[in-house]
Amino acid sequence: MSRPKGGVTRRDLGLTLAAAMPLAAQQTAPPADLIADAREQWKKNAEQLRKVKVPIATEPSFIFRP
User: Fold this and answer.
1) Measured on CA atoms in the order 7, 10, 15, 18, is the torsion positive or negative?
2) Residue 18 backbone zone (phi > 0: left; psi -120 to 50: alpha; other: beta)
């Protein structure tokens, strides 16, 4: 089998990708301050929603029919 002028064969590329997959599969946890900021924003949004008064007669924008 002759080697292409670029020096990389499909087999070489496949081995490289197979070796890189475990590294790509590792996930890092988000920083603790990012999680804390998201929770704080969620609490602020919940407080803002609690301030909105919705009349009892208001119908939902959808109807769930199983």
Assistant:
1) positive
2) alpha
Torsion, CA 42, CA 45, CA 46, CA 50, rounded to 10 = 180
Along the 66 residues of the chain, how does pLDDT read in single tens digits? 566 666 778 888 888 878 877 766 666 767 788 889 999 999 999 999 999 998 888 887 777 787
What's the CA angle centered on 33, arms 28 and 38, to 5 degrees?
95
E strand or H helix at 31: none
Q: How far apart are CA 2 and CA 35, in angstroms?
A: 53
Continuous segment of H or E residues that includes residue 55: none
> Considering the entire predicted model, what is its pTM?
0.42
Which residue in the block uniquely carries the two structure tokens 């803002």?
48
